[in-house]
Amino acid sequence: MGMTMTQKILADHAGLDSVVAGQLIEANLDMVLGNDVTSPVAINEMNKFGRTSVFDKTRISLVMDHFTPNKDIQSAENCKQVREFAKSNDILHYYDVGNMGIEHALLPEKGIVTCGDCIIGADSHTCTYGALGAFSTGVGSTDMAAGMVTGKAWFKVPSAIKVVITGKKAQCISGKDVVLHLIGMIGVDGALYKSLEFTGDGIKELTMDDRLCISNMAIECGAKNGIFPVDDVTLDYVKGRTLREYKVYTADEDAEYDSVVEIDLSTLKPTVACPHLPENTKTVDELDKIEIDQVVIGSCTNGRMEDMRAAAEILKGNKVAKGVRCIVIPATQAVYLQCIKEGIAEIFVEAGAIVSTPTCGPCLGGHMGILASGEKAVSTSNRNFVGRMGHTKSEIYLASPAVAAASAIKGYIADPRNI
Amino acid sequence: MKAKGFVHKFGDNVDTDVIIPARYLNKSDDAWLASHCMEDIDPDFVNNVKSGDIMVAQANFGCGSSREHAPIAIKASGISCVIASTFARIFYRNAINIGLAILECDEAANDIKAGDEVEVDFDSGVITNCTTNKTYQAQPFPPFIQNIIKNGGLMNSIK
Ligand code: SF4
Strand B117-121 and strand B2-9: pairing? Predict the structure, then answer.
């Protein structure tokens, strides 16, 4: 029986010729990731068991992104603990204020993760790197601790849902609309425990930023990972970035899938996920006039360069509506700098938006834009659970940067195709 | 490796919030977590549970947040094994990683009743209901996963 792309990567990293869905395996890891929230827990776990050294100081990434620049004393203490750990273990990929970015934007951008990798991260959106044709998934803190010590993790080999993408992108459609549409179709547990394997001739129409956004939200339908085949778009992206040798895996012709889902890019409309679940999707033209208090453009889902450009294109020469706070957060220092170079930062500021240093910030209700009771926000992030960005009586609408920027100008959730 | 004990039975979608409510997460020592285990779904559980007892539940056991406190609370309460139709993904990982034995077996999960005496053989995956004399076959864990559980968790078992 043939194997899916995910199964092939897992088999190879476990030193096996083949694996089947449901099989438990132990795989070698190419990268172990943690952030300022999860790494301290993992480090404590190592200390508790008297483990002081790591398996490979070049294959651990510690990114201080959630509550940085430190928002309070507790977050400062957490970062200090990780910083000291990184220093004493001589960790190569330690990123702090000044060179950090949101982890899932930073690692692909810097070539720290690459095609064919097997990656775990103590952060649920570690699935983002599936866009590069890697297997990557979110785990708990004990997994991260053991991964740092041994360079291995155990996995139950997942079965897969095949997502066939066809057609050319309709107007104002980005990766975010594709993934919100998918989650709306299959639900927040539609891929529980499974891989999403993307395929089809529409994939070549998707840029790397589109793909990173789509893989990022695989977890929002319960998937273990969401993986794209490696093509010219991928190879162009990794060339000049990747710090290591990479390997390209392809699914077998006779690989088995639990089900098949089809998405025709030409039929999509800008899509919004309404409170309080990512599966509550509607196309923007189906919504009543929903007035908003805040717009956030950023996060590991949509804080990349194309996202910034899409927002700037709409905000250029326009003003953020009175009564709306528009917060733009480029996901990495490189994106931030590019926004300055291209004059995009200027467009944002002139429109009446603010431009923040890279941080997770408001995405998890951390800092830099917490919502009060009764407030509504359009956010380009990935979760709209109750209380995710602040008060439990606030509401979050998830959308693409184009929808977010159009809404910022109008003061209500607006269709970017009409701007 | 074997476990034998009396059964505490639960239904579908037992989430991590009822296994250990968030209001008790400010402390993480085992005894504290055990003393509030299952409190919001079965307040008498902590008084009735005896060391070695077995928990049986139905689909999607442990859904919700990724808190490792949930399997820790169950293990610390004295439960020797959880049998369920299915487990939520992160709970499944966390349970094994902290050394709580778990087995997926739909038939056993549906059949076995509260108070039954059940024996589990982890090497073979055979579950025996001693009260009704019925046996069930779950997929046994491969040796390295058994090793993790036997050693009391992932950190204890790594070389
Ligand atoms: S941006 Fe949001 S979802 Fe992404 S890593 Fe940060 S907190 Fe998590």
Answer: antiparallel
